[in-house]
Amino acid sequence: MKAVIFDMDGILIDSEPLWRQAEIKVFKTVGIELTEEDCIQTLGYRIDEVEDYWYNRQPWLNREKGRVAEAIVDEMVFQIKTQGKAMIGVEDALELFTNLGYKIGLASSSSMRLIDTVLDTLKIRSFFHAIHSAEHEAYGKPHPAVFISCMRSLDIQAKNCVIIEDSPSGIIAARASKARVIAVPEPHNRNKPEMGIAHAQLDSLAFLEGSLIASLF
């Protein structure tokens, strides 16, 4: 038995631009002017870790710590429900792994509230046998805990598992879990050194084929 674990943001849903918009909008309310390039620095982090990252650099006094993360999640729920679109090739990829007899998992840095919003908006929940959020782990990515927990729920060994990720921190976490790793990065991340540690790299899930998956084992 083999399994695949999908990351969510940037893999299943085209949410990375929405995250950047939400972070720029909400951090502005506490006096932090972020650019899209600034937001890319925390790509793949849990939202509480994003808040900590900027608070440690530019502490604010006009809002209780923790409220910024909540406001960003609120904004993301709204954006996903109104604008959320699947990444190219998502349904075909899910059907491919289903037809191959793979167990399918999801392991995301996003909260379960956001995971549920995405699965319901895209109507893909039925494909998954295990769903995990890093909000329930002591450490977020690049620590591999969320992937390890997902593999445990799938009752699968790392040597029999493929992880599909897009962010540098996610690639590091996936490799640290000892699974096989396919990188599907955004264009601005394709030449980053972290992508080189993946076992394979694709421009989108539309290029995913059974022969590539077989070659990983």
Short characterization:
With 217 residues, the chain is α/β, with parallel strands linked by helices. It has nine helices and six strands. The longest helix is centred in the middle third of the chain and has 17 residues, at 67-83.
Shape descriptor reads globular
Residues in helices, as a percent range: 40-55%
Strand arrangement within the widest β-sheet reads 3-2-1-4-5-6
Number of strands: 6
Determine the structural class based on helices, strands and strand pairing. Answer: alpha/beta
Q: Would you list the SSEs in sequence order as H and E?
A: EHHHHHEHEHEHEEH
Rg result: 17 Å
End-to-end separation in angstroms reads 12 Å
Largest sheet: 6 strands, parallel
Tally of contiguous helical segments: 9
Instruction: Give the overall pLDDT as a whole number.
Output: 94
Identify low-pLDDT runs: none
Q: Which strand-content bin applies to the residues? A: 5-15%
Main features:
217 residues, alpha/beta, six-stranded parallel sheet, globular
Describe the overall structure:
- There is one protein chain.
- This protein has 9 helices and 6 strands; from the N terminus they run E-H-H-H-H-H-E-H-E-H-E-H-E-E-H.
- It starts with a strand and ends with a helix.
- It is α/β, with parallel strands linked by helices.
- A 6-stranded parallel sheet has the order 3-2-1-4-5-6.
- The mean pLDDT is 94.
